[in-house]
Amino acid sequence: MTIGILGGGQLGRMLVLAGAPLGLQFKILDPSSEAVAGQLAPLLCEDINDVPALLWFSKNLDVVTYEWENVPVGSAKYLAARVPVFPPPRALEISSDRLKEKSFFRENGVPTPDFAAIESRAELDAALKEIGLPAVLKTRKFGYDGKGQFVLKTPRDADKAWEKLGGVPLILESFVPFEREVSILAVRGQGGEKRFYPLVENHHREGILRLSLVGAGLTSSSNRLDETQLEEDVSPASLQSDAEKFASKLLDKLDYVGVMALELFQIGERLLANEIAPRVHNSGHWTIEGSVCSQFENHLRAVAGLPLGSTEMKAPFAAMVNLIGHLPPLCEVLRIEGAHAHFYGKEIKAGRKVGHITLTASSREELQSAVDAAQLLTADGRR
């Protein structure tokens, strides 16, 4: 079986790595000749909007998937008329527009922060009166890793926010005083079967994911990477059940096939949906060594029509530390007990995800020690 992947970044690279033991073949379409998945599979370097390139790309493919949520919906629909495309283009269409996404959540009983569509400065002023402050103004499209967002804390911030983001369709959302940012990775097969990975606690800075923690009763006392402490569980057991219920509704409504990440805010015993990613996800990288079947293999199993694999954890605790703009010496990473290095083969640039470290442990204490050691190797820890 040959699978086409739209986008050739690190997620595409990890899909190829996961598919090789299964005997799957791949073809990549990406506009960059430096796309790192192209180091492992044939790369067609063309514009993803280019119709002749899409037609050529579709030849001899059994199925197409994608590793980037900003793939043009029109391109996905064009390919879907010629070869099965999973996840379905409708999921891509909904997730690529924050207003459509939040509306889709509400329509399907998944709670979200308050929000309003913004097309003009007058609508912004009216929405601020309705929603209140603080609030977050976001572009409806093309936002990731914290891009296209502005936090409004006082009425005076409205001018700055409009100056920075005005001129394109926007959405205003109430600011959520969350206790934790969490995500759930879910996978749905072609026959409708579903599996769920454990809830993951995520820590961001400057809009970029820096650390993910997973395991029974994990929480942390601080969002600062250099002060992360693993403590006893303060969250009700129902959170996993609620997250699975929300994700299941969305998967079924979309007739979804593949892995989907649902990002959520935890406020006490409640979860509010932030967004979905219709693809394998950064917060699921721990599954490569931390679960029986990784998110990457399960995504491929789903889109290829194969039985889904177990999402059970191999060890009680796991973590993922992102490497942003810096790669530490490999020997230093491998000295950490329970650590596995994943270097993406990218050119090193400030703010760029160039690798990650996954960690597994049998106790909180072991994981704490490994996380501390791994963070010392990051650009943040070396300052």
Description:
The chain has helices spanning about 10-20, 50-60, 75-80, 90-95, 100-105, 120-130, 155-165, 240-255, 285-290, 295-305, 330-335, 365-375; strands at about 1-5, 25-30, 45, 65, 115-120, 135-140, 150, 170-175, 180-190, 195, 200-205, 210-215, 260-265, 270-275, 315-325, 340-345, 355-360. The strands form three sheets. Strands 9, 10, 11, 12, 13, 14, 15, 16 and 17 form a nine-stranded antiparallel sheet that branches. The protein is an alpha+beta fold. The protein has three domains: about 1-85, Rossmann fold (3-Layer(aba) Sandwich); about 115-175, Dna Ligase, domain 1 (2-Layer Sandwich), CATH 3.30.1490.20; about 180-375, ATP-grasp fold, B domain (D-amino Acid Aminotransferase, Chain A, domain 1). The longest helix is centred in the middle third of the chain and has 16 residues, at about 240-255. Helices cover about 30% and strands about 25% of the residues. It is globular, with a radius of gyration of 20 Å.
